[in-house]
Design a protein that fits this description.
single chain, about 40% helix, alpha/beta, 4-stranded antiparallel beta sheet, about 375 residues
């Protein structure tokens, strides 16, 4: 029998940590606070609206850039929230989730020899896409315990080969959010360069304590060189539907669509039409921040009697807990024991890092029913 010699394009990349921890949670009957999805359903009205559009015949290929009503709704929403008007015909692309948007965007602009500045800990899809396109990841580390950006370090990381910076705010996994001073520093850092910026803003509506989301669409100078990427999964509790979008100036959008058309070509049309209705009806999604802030605050109250120490969470639906009062072992070992011995699944933050010290921290998802959080916290208090 012939043995095939296959040379991997991503030899150091294994199965996603999210799939691994969810599988272990299922095997051990653990409460799954690891993978970032709700254990409650979306609004029944949204399901009914999708079904209505399916019955109306939206079951064939939608237009490659996305259905016109959704792109128009997004253009209006972004202008209302952030002040920039994107042309829905030429500057907005609907993608199969934000991950596909990131893939198409990085594939459009990163070439062999280019450097891409990434802020770690970072979402696990960023580095592989940079590498697949021949780029070199250059890491700026957000350090435990406050995870703020050191802009002097960013400026040292930029070279003539820097093609783009990839930002994420609100930030997964730390819950850090960019503020107005970060936007000023980013502009100062990019001044005199031709680097692009990709801004992953999928948690834009999940931001707490009265803070304002600093979208790169809000600043004219940054928006002129930025691709802003967001999605509907986190906003509408529909992570499995996988619909996202990219907003960018026309020349950048044209290049993104050159790639997008050969990745997924198009996205489920009935779901796009339903989202268009919901975006038009409530572009600000103000209730979402209150909903998840209540979840965050409940989880924090519930773990108060434990030996875990909560770090600040200013956005997203993830909470970092410091376990240094419990163990000095690596986070992956502690996360595994938490599943096998205590019945709660989390994510070790080392999964988001490349050669940097993660600190004694695990990530927990609080996008769960109150009773799920109560059962999990009871187990965490017993650790």
């Amino acid at each position: 029998m012939t043995t095939l010699a296959v040379q991997s394009k991503l030899p150091s990349t294994g199965v996603s940590i999210f799939a691994v921890m969810t599988r272990l949670a299922n095997e051990h009957g653990a409460i799954n606070l690891s993978q970032g999805f709700p254990d409650f359903d979306c609004a029944p009205e949204l399901v009914d609206t999708v079904a209505r559009y399916m019955r109306a015949g939206h079951n064939q290929y939608a237009p490659m850039p996305g259905v016109a009503p959704l792109r128009a709704a997004l253009a209006t929403k972004i202008e209302r929230l952030y002040g920039r008007r994107y042309d829905p015909e030429t500057e907005i692309t609907i993608t199969s989730g934000a991950t596909a948007g990131i893939f198409s965007t990085l594939s459009a602009f990163v070439r062999a020899g280019d450097e891409v500045v990434l802020f770690q800990p970072c979402y696990d899809s960023y580095v592989p896409v940079v590498q697949l396109n021949g780029g070199t990841p250059v890491f700026v580390t957000l350090r435990f315990p406050d995870y703020r950006i050191d802009w002097d370090e960013v400026r040292r990381a930029i070279t003539p080969r820097t093609r783009l910076l990839l930002l994420n705010s609100p930030h997964n996994p730390t819950g850090m959010v960019l503020d107005a001073s970060d936007i000023r520093e980013l502009k100062r850092t990019l001044d005199g360069t031709d680097a692009l910026v990709v801004s992953d803003e999928v948690y834009e509506h999940i931001i707490f304590d009265g803070r304002r989301h600093e979208s790169l669409a809000r600043d004219p100078d940054l928006a002129s060189r930025a691709v802003v990427i967001s999605s509907f999964g986190k906003t509408y509790h529909t992570t499995g539907w996988k619909v996202g979008y990219c907003a960018a100036p026309r020349p950048l959008t044209a290049e993104i669509q050159r790639i997008h058309q050969f990745v997924t070509f198009t996205v489920n049309g009935a779901i796009q039409m339903a989202y268009a209705d919901f975006v038009t009806r409530d572009p600000q999604c103000e209730d979402l921040a209150r909903f998840y802030q209540a979840k965050r605050d409940l989880f924090l109250r519930l773990v108060e009697g434990s030996r875990f120490r909560a770090l600040p969470c200013r956005g997203t639906y993830f909470q970092l807990l410091d376990y240094s009062a419990i163990a000095s072992d690596p986070d992956s070992d502690v996360a595994l024991r938490l599943i096998t011995d205590h019945g709660v699944a989390s994510i070790p933050t080392s999964a988001f890092l490349y050669g940097a010290d993660p600190g004694p921290v695990l990530r927990f998802c609080f996008a769960k029913r109150d009773e799920t959080l109560e059962r999990a916290a009871e187990k965490l208090r017993a650790v």
